[in-house]
Batch of 3 targets.
Target 1
Amino acid sequence: MRSFGLTAAALLLTTTTAPLWAQTPIATSIEAPAVAGAAVILSPEAAALRDALLSGGPDLAAVEVVYAARDYAPIWTRMKAASLTAALSSAERHGLPVERYDLAPLRAEPTTGGLNHQREVAMTQAFLTYARDVNSGVLEPRRVDSDIVVSPKRPDPAALLEGMAETPDPINYLQALAPSHRHYTDLLEEKIRLERLIASGGWGERIPDGGTLRPGDASPRVIALRARLEAVFETDMGAGPEYDETLVDFVTSFQLRHGLNDDGVVGPKTLAAINANPGDRLKQVLVNLERQRWLNYERGSRHIYVNQADFSVQVIDHGETTFVSRVVIGKNKHRTQEFNDEMTHMVVNPTWHVPRSIATEEMLPKLKANPGALGGSMQIMTRGGTRVNPQLIDFTQFTQSNFPFLVKQSPGGANALGRVKFMFPNQFNIYLHDTPAKNLFSRDARAYSHGCVRVQKPFELAEVLLAPQTEDPKGVFERYLGGGRERQVNLEQPVPVYLTYQSAWVDRFGVPQYRDDIYGRDGRVFEALSQLGVTLGAVEG
């Protein structure tokens, strides 16, 4: 892993014991000791602290028990206060808005000879806000975009403060609040790299607009392409005007870093990616740091990770990728939501129960023109389940609002769901499935479905999922498949599924990867971060 000053070691606990806030369940209640029959007499300052906590909002009220258990003794010693002030002052390292944390009252010295309750409350409030932000995100995802249906797991305020009160090493404790997952720590290093790159002038001049550049071409635009890639890869590529094999190699390498087909041809998508500036990439990194904070919890020793921005699905086993496939996701009109769930079963040789929206918006116009347009695999049925002959129906009398029929497609090779679907029942009726439309997997951008996720290698995925529960997953799956009839196959151990949208990450080889913001979600997240005060720092402008 590269090091640019902020090492991974500085982001992880150096002890084998998790911090107290991480050990304590969310529902933990910390109670003050009580002596039977004894009234607790508080000093005026202690009573003022208690009252300020109880009236200061939910987080402060929740931590009043921590102070009560300590007889309202101050938690923020000079060392702990200095450690917190330093962490808040450098919050920009994590892409967090420093202005969000009011540092002025924190820098004031404690009152000699007694408890300064205003300062104590200010320190605690700033700490709880920062701890929540750096640990699980500064935004509420659903308020940013209704399609981001992700609920970050927020740390318990009382457990957080109890941990700070007990720790002898506040610097390490504060550093350990941030995610330790390598996707996060590697992005922090990429953030520093981009900031330095911007400060030094970026990647130079853009390539002028024009037609597609192909191997064998020779023009001033090829010279510009060579110069731009030389800056990107930080290597000497010469200055010739010919689109030679060396240039082809670097173009294909660049395409792989950006999720493009590695054909060595600079078409519109490749040109746009090459011409992107480091500031745009830095915005992506800031957005994806926030996304990683939303996912800052144990994701499961085995889990399925769908990256919509990358049009890919992976099975992760104990941190290693054991399966990967291209996918097709929802078109912009039918965007695939971001959410987390559990896969419980698969259905082999599935029947497709056509959603009413598709039946009325797409199929009904065809039926009006030709009652036999849907073919023999499609069945038109009454709501009671009786199959009807479409040739005997006058479909011109129906509209989208009064269409009285159900449509389903029998199992088989022509079925829109293919031969297998993978189920994690959810409110959006989204799942992974096979498809007969294999040609779409060859595209750079693969947003063509009605919202579900089509998998290029569904049989291999089925076998990987069955492997923990049978010695012959391939043979078992083929027997189910060959039976021809619809069959539900339960997973003995449900598998967590994450439908996420990571447009920037660093791969296991240390190579930064960037993808297009196909749904515009990154733009909305960055706008929300900007409103809270997140900027591109000193390099902005």
Target 2
Amino acid sequence: MPAFLHNTGQLLLGSRFFRTWYIFSLSLIIVSLPFSKVGISIGQMMIAGGWVMERFPYRRFFDYLNSKSGFLAFLTFIPLAIFLMLVAILQGFRQFFSQKAAMIFSSIFILHLAGLIFTTDFDYAGKDLRTKLPLLLLPLLIATSEPFDRKGFYYLLVLFAATVLCRTLYNGFLILHDQFIDIREVSRNVSHIILSLLIVLSICSLIYLSFRNSCFPLWLRWIFRLTAGWFLFYLFYSQSFTGISILVILFLLFLLLQIIHTRNNWLRAGLILAVLAASTTLVLSLRSVVLDYYRVNPVDFKRLDKVSSRGNPYLNDSLSRLTENGNYLWIYVQMEEMREVWNKRSTIPFDSLSKKKEVCAFTVIRFLSSKGWRKDGDAVERLTEAEIGAIEKGVPNYLFIGNLSLRARIYEFLSGFDTYRETGNPTGSTVMQRVEFWKASLGIIREHWLTGVGTGDMNIAFDREYERMQTKLAPDQRWRSHNQFLSILVGFGIPGLAWFLFAIFYPWYLRGYRYDFFMNLFLLIALLSMLTEDTIESQTGVTFFAFFYTLFLFARSREDRLFK
């Protein structure tokens, strides 16, 4: 047995096995990010296993076994292997301790460990720490591994973009064939927000690779440009408001940087005009949609019909000013007629919840109002089968049935805003719910501004705060901050937020990557997402953040500047 083990050890020591293993493991994480949480976990375990075994002192191990008799070698095989694995881990940590920037970034995980001091719910704290483990694991493993040369790094980016392309093509197929309830859930096992961040990162990376370097042939660079164009189309096709917003901000920042760095006065003037034109177009487009939404079709409330064509009395609420496409919601409402006809035409009862988990009756009223129809039995009879199916899915406006317009998302926001302003209930509006989440966060922060509530007690703190606020949010919608900076403040107080920001920015400064295109691009995308999302509170989100931060900052031998 020792001779066999000796030969095996020589094979491993004399090959590039561990480098290949490392690259394969990184690639598995990359291809799993848009698809599989299981793949992400397996990839990280594979990197960790390879990292330990690469440092394992094989020669010492085999020399010891060869020096002992067969029985004694067999008896000491496992204890010796465990001991030497611990030695290998300690050696890896010694390398890690010499990487000051990586240690500082990984201290975000230590911050969560420190939060246990103020925790009472250790079950949730344990789950949260397991979720945050990539913040420690990935800097440790990647920063102490051999960096990639420029070409190898670019190949990883191309693999990443190809994987995102597969995800968006599959999602596009699902959208085209109407295989979803809420278009934001079309990615299913991956958050639509995280997917939009992956898409934006892919767009900008492909544009850089297609214009700023010659590592790839011209035909392949044209494929990069076409793929970036598809990603841009997909963001609109899937109504990804977050992705489009971040991309617009990045585009405007890019134009501003071009203005600052260009020495050609004519080019500078042209770019300034381009920024002004783009900003003006955006503002005017939004203004047009808002004005169209708030346009109200005139109604003489003194001359409203009292009964329907079927002889039943209408509800005419002249005090409510809620509208849909300029038509008042609460006039010409005959609930009994709608209920009777709807229940004959649909498998979802009128008084139950739609597939979107919203009150079906209210969705019917909004949909009929959007078409300018009365809300009675005759109107429900006029609906097509496709419109019935759309209402069952929770579509409240006939304009929203198309997939290529952002008008639906803007109308959704405005409708939620009006409902929140009139009733105080934000349920059903993602933006107004966030306002309620932020109110609850600020309420907790006022009470725990110095130390926070700890790693494990955030859910408890939010439950108490929502009760104190007497919120009208539905119980199953009472979530946490949906703002990463507020989440850190809630958990760890002002000192915790200060350290969180220091741990993000100081390594970037210390490594001298202040002008690197990819690092700055990633930081902008991640930090912008943190304004409206708890980006590192989910497995996919924290892996996205930790993986690309360490990849761009520690896994490259050279930086890539936008302006040279």
Target 3
Amino acid sequence: MIAMIATAIIGIVAGGGLGWALHKFLRARTLRLAREEAQDIIDEAKEAVELRNLEEKERIQEIEMELWTKVEPEMLKAEGRIEDLQEVANEKKAKADAIVQEEKKKLQEREADVKTQEQALRGLEAELNKLKDVQKGLNQDLVSKLTERLGTSAEEFKTQLKNQMEEETRRRAARIAQETEADAKEHAEQEAKRVLSLVIDRFARPYCAERGIGAVNFPDAHIRKLFCDPAGNNIKAVQEACGCDIIVEEGMEMVGVAGFDPVRRELTRRTLERIFKEKKNINPDFIRKIAENQKKELFKNIKHDGDSLAKELKLEGLNAEIRQMMGSLRYRYSFTQNQYFHCGEVGWLAGLMAAELGLDIKKARRVGMLHDIGKSMDHTVEGGHAVIGADFIAARGEAPDVVHAVKAHHFDEQPSTDHAFLVIAADAVSGARPGARRSTIESYNQKVSELQDIARSFPGVTDCFVLSGGRECRVMVNGKKVDDTQAMDLSRKIAARIEEECNYPGSIKVVVVREVLVTEQTRKELA
């Protein structure tokens, strides 16, 4: 049994080995056949590729031949043109080479000439230096002989000559300045007078002769008695409510109102007039109530006046605070001239002059109206009203040229625009016209004294007279101490000093009078 099993196993093993050997043989044969077949396929593919490459080369050659056949005439023409251009280029190059050679030759000749001239120049410089040395020696001899003959040193003679030349130059400059100034005045004054005459003729707005009110009269003795209570409570109530001082003196049937703020003075005046209409029950509570009501009404009037002036001049885009300040000028006076109406006049006059000169009319009216806005606040803000007003409108959006015109109308800064000079002229016309402004006897005497003191403070001035109501300052000078040139300079200095130190409306003419009086006596003995 075991033997059979062993025989079976041996048979299986032997059969398996034989099968495996057969399988390996068949596989090797299959791989060899596959390789041979693959090699045949590869060879066929290579032959096909080579054949196709040959066909493509032949096709490319055919295409090249066709293309060459088509472009051959053009190519031949292009080659011919290239040959022609090459010949032209060669000709131009030859000409250019010839020109270059010629220029080089000329340059060499010029260089040789320059060298020759340089040598000659060196020789001339050497001769010139010798001549300079000779001249220097001659000058020294001449200076020594002149100084010996004149009895002065060379430096003193130079100083004298320099002074003479400076004096002569100064005289010539003064004469030229006089002629130029006279010519400019002749033409400029004619044109200015023509424009001003046209503007004044066209100005149809009525002049205002309104004056400020400094006191309020008592209606009767009974009202005076009610108002002037023994304890003075009513007067104190008015002063506290209105912010002004009340002056009541014995024997005077009026109430004086004193204060720096013109609006407060107006409020006080209105309050007093309303109180005096009351026949009884005048007491501090009643006074405070009246003052509050009058304040509301006054502010309403101020707003209406500012809006009316802007509307009258047809100005748009004005800030509300600017209109309010313009309205408050209704109660501000300068040399007894109402500033509200003055600003309106200046606005109209500036606009009319702008129309005659071809300038912006609306801008001229604007700067004319705003030029004195600083006077509505100069009692509370330190500085000149032109600077105060310019700063105020600049902070509220006005254009820089408008601000400049307002600031420069009293020369707080040098005017540099046409509208700035227009405002100066219009302001002078409005303020200097007959009846526009007037002074008290005290202020006039003070003005005369100031002008005389300023003029007499300069050396050479013998006397000073103020004429034409303070419009002319005539200065008498010593003719032996002040010559013509110095007289011109003296008039300018006096005018500048007056502008700097005095406060006055309009303009003041400074006239310097120079006289030379020579006397001599004769004697003769009688026979």
